[in-house]
Amino acid sequence: MEIFSSVSSLGTSIHGYNDDVLIEIIRECAPDKVFLAEVTKKDFVKEFKISRFFEKFQAVINVPLIPVGLDITIYEEFRKKFSAENVNTPELAIKKNMLDLIDNTIFNYLAHYWKGPETVNSEVTDSLFRAKHKLFSSVFYDLEKGFWEDRHSNIVDNIRKMKPGNSSVIISGVESRYWFKDHIDDLLNGDP
């Protein structure tokens, strides 16, 4: 199973990594299914099926695109509520500001590091996001679990229900790619 970062999740344009390049990379994998980790079923029907990416993809690759994403508003509300209830002391506010600074620093560094699909979909990128979330978990465990871990676990459940195979492909957000790579056995073997 291969996992690739979506072009739209980068937050910036990367020379040499656009929809056409991503589609060609996926075509070369000869997948049996392609899972869209950032797209909900509702958004797939409403918006994604009329997107340029979908049109180009369908013209080149004749396999199902399967939306398995979740409505992020539930998780955003959880994060807002957590912050309102738990970031109410100077010490916790400083921790939150420190994490925001780290987040911005990582994205600024990666925006300069990314030169194409190889660097975007690299272990360097994955390692930085893995370390970020490990640190976030050590500072605000409940927030990380409720916002990040639970959401991604539910996406894995959605993928597992669709019976992925070794040749399946996941298109995920750039920050989420490491998470799916780290849980590939859960996806293929059905282990929770």
Query: Shape, please?
Result: globular
The fraction of residues assigned to DSSP E strands is 5-15%
The separation of the N and C termini measures 17 Å
User: Mean pLDDT score, rounded?
Assistant: 90
**pLDDT < 50 stretches:** none
Q: Describe the sheet with the most strands.
A: 4 strands, parallel
Structural topology:
Elements: E1 2-5, H1 19-29, E2 34-36, H2 41-46, H3 52-60, E3 65-67, H4 73-86, H5 90-113, H6 117-120, H7 123-139, H8 141-161, E4 169-172, H9 177-182, H10 184-189
Parallel strand pairs: 1-4, 2-3, 2-4
Helix pairs in contact: 1-3, 4-8, 5-7, 7-8
Folded structure, characterized:
Strands 1-4-2-3 form a 4-stranded parallel β-sheet. Helix 1 (19-29) runs parallel beside helix 3, helix 4 packs antiparallel against helix 8 and helix 7 crosses helix 8. The protein starts with a strand and ends with a helix. It has helices at 19-29, 41-46, 52-60, 73-86, 90-113, 117-120, 123-139, 141-161, 177-182, 184-189, and strands at residues 2-5, 34-36, 65-67, 169-172. It is of the alpha/beta class.
Question: Which tags fit this structure?
Answer:
192 residues; alpha/beta; four-stranded parallel sheet; 10 helices; 7% strand
